[in-house]
Amino acid sequence: MAWPFESHHDELRTSVRAFVDGELAPHADEWEAEGYFPDSVFRRMGELGFLGLSYPEEYGGGGGDYLCNVVLAEELSRCNSGGVAMAIAVQTDMAVPPVHKFGSEEQKKKYLTAAISGEKIFCLGISEPDAGSDVAGIKTTAKKIEGGWVVNGAKLWITNGKRADCMTLVAKTDRDAGHQGISLFIVDTDTPGYHVRRTLDKLGMHASDTAEISFTDMFLPDDALLGNEGEGFYNISWELQGERLIGAAGTIVGARRTLDAAIAYAKERKTFGKPISKHQAVRHALAEMATEIQAAQQLVYLAAWKVNRGEYPVREISMAKLLTGEVSWKVSDRSLQIFGGYGYSMEFPVQRAWRDSRLIRIGGGTDEVMREVIGRMEGL
Ligand SMILES: Cc1cc2nc3c(=O)[nH]c(=O)nc-3n(C[C@H](O)[C@H](O)[C@H](O)COP(=O)(O)OP(=O)(O)OC[C@H]3O[C@@H](n4cnc5c(N)ncnc54)[C@H](O)[C@@H]3O)c2cc1C
């Protein structure tokens, strides 16, 4: 299990890598500076089959296993922009999986097929101005009326929010029913009452657009309900497991790339008559980082291997998310230190890794929330 991949995953890795190195990485600096990347990236990835690797072939998917998604996430970390990798992961592993898992046949034909081809871009609407970690505390409501629902409220921090054609929305359908009062919906973003309020300026992930969305008396027909009414909290909790694991998988490979750059620099840069890698303090820092990355990566693979076997390993996923977040942050910070003044310069990529890697400790469930989940699973 130490290396869970088989030869067909290796072949997939080769073709994703060729795409990422040839068609994404060369544009990363430009897209980071613009704060956006073109929608055509989604369509191109759809053409190449990369947006539906593990979905059934009848909807245009590749019919592969979960490890294919892990390969994609790992290779996307080579694109030199955490923002691009994250925006694509929202499509492949966050907003769309609930459509496949909980959608009706009609919803799958209409939305899953279009998401896999890249014709429709998805975003995921969970977080709000007043609720992030506490998902059950959301205030967006969907009130039942004849023939459908009327939605009012707001969502914050929505990745792909500016460009999305569709949103997988979490809303309260019964204010008094606690966790059972939440439901999921699929929303076409051109529905009257759906407004993109603003895009948010962020510390990192610059190429990814992050928006605030509001809903004002937005009417959704009955068939916009995704899954059963009242099961949205449990269904989005399922989604969050995939989101966390795929984030962890990409993050830890990104950390290894940051470390490789630091090692290369440490071998070249000389102080006091020798390369800085020959100073024990620097060498030990690099050795420690290599060890921690390896350990975190094995935890990711353990969780992914379990998912691939059909298990639901919340404990291992939470641990993998927590550990990769902490390790990748530490690696980017210590690597920046090894670059000295150049590390602080915008001309060296390590500053981007430092800014981008900070998000994994917050997005999709913070470190503290992961500790709470793990604590509960340890019987605490
Ligand atoms: C760039 C970016 C992109 C994002 N993309 C999306 C997206 O596409 N869709 C989406 O829905 N959301 C998205 N998010 C939102 C993200 O998932 C939330 O920010 C995250 O879940 C934390 O919620 P919050 O910001 O409301 O913090 P809060 O929940 O307000 O937490 C604030 C602090 O309190 C701590 N805390 C909260 N509860 C506890 C507790 N019980 N015990 C101990 N500490 C606690 C937290 O750990 C944190 O440190 C994105 C966020 C960012 C920054």
Characterize the structure shown.
The chain is an alpha+beta fold and 380 residues long. It has three domains: 7-121, Orthogonal Bundle (Butyryl-Coa Dehydrogenase, subunit A, domain 1), CATH 1.10.540.10; 123-230, Butyryl-CoA Dehydrogenase, subunit A, domain 2; 234-377, Butyryl-CoA Dehydrogenase, subunit A, domain 3, CATH 1.20.140. It contains twelve helices and ten strands. Strand 2 (141-145) and strand 3 (148-159) form a beta hairpin. Helix 5 (82-95) packs antiparallel against helix 8. It is globular and about 80 Å long. The protein starts with 6 loop residues before the first helix and ends with a helix. It binds flavin-adenine dinucleotide (FAD). Flavin-adenine dinucleotide (FAD) is lined by residues 90, 123-127, 132-133, 157-159, 202, 205, 210, 359, 362-366, 368-369, 372.
